[in-house]
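Quick note —
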Amino acid sequence: MADASERCDDAPALRPEWFAAFLADRGTRKPSVHTMKAYRQDFDAIATLITGGADEVARMALGDITTESMRTAFAQYAQTHEAASIQRCWSSWNVLCTFLYTAELIGANPMPLVGRPKLAKILPKALPTDSVVALLAALEADPQPRRRSDWVERDRALIVTALLAGLRADELLRANVGDLRRTDAGAVVHVRGKGGKDRRVPVESVLVDILERYLTSRALRFPATTKRRSPGTGLAAWPANAPLFVGADGERISRGTLQYRVLRAFRRAGIDAGRARGALVHGLRHTFATELANSEVSVYTLMTLLGHESMVTSQRYVTAAGAETRAAAAQNKLYALLHDGHPHD
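Predicted structure written out below.
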């Protein structure tokens, strides 16, 4: 049997019409490309198990969605997948079945009766201060590119924007030059967030200066893409709808290029071994959030700046900051006096 994940993600003929209606409904909420891909992959995985084969998925009936069939399929799925994958697949099917129930296409959503693993709540891991220092130093150390794809000004702007504005990878990819706006009180970055939920993140002049130096270097590389009849540099040289970050070809930067440039900077700084698995741009965002939490900003402020849907998510950073503060306080050498049996005065 072919792995369902190897099938074409964009082949509606391989899936029933009611699933296509679900995707159309989710599409109105402006989810990320990766979220839509996850819906399709998770549907294929379970539907293949229920129907007995990938070639049968298109003929899957709504009546096939029962508590028993879902429990059986997820039990099979769990034999070959990690807890995080099972949890995500369960969530995808829960959203799908909620849609079908709300549309009165099925009598009930069976997913609350289908078991799923509980994931450990891992506290976000921020970069230590010395790692941030090493990272920034590495970006300054080699102004001469070693290869055509190297672009120090662009890489510095990418990393510092993630560190000082806390943007997700997708938000960096979607950002336009016009999203960085000067105001009487300073500057703000207009962020196109997840699910179409935009936010405004205040930034200081040091970040604006770094971005403008990058944009000036970009004008030298790609003069034909600047504003016509504009003698300006920095922000003034570019149309508002021009992508803020571009690749070596002058086009909007791709996700792969973005992550690779951050990874390469981590490696040059000698801090790659210490990062959490998969934490590149998101590791920089964690650092932004943790620094704010250490500064004792409110959970509501954190939620607003990070674009979280729930305060519960933002609270994790406050909890992490509290744990780090407690761990630091525990290093006080005066505690050793008590452990060594000295009298209490």
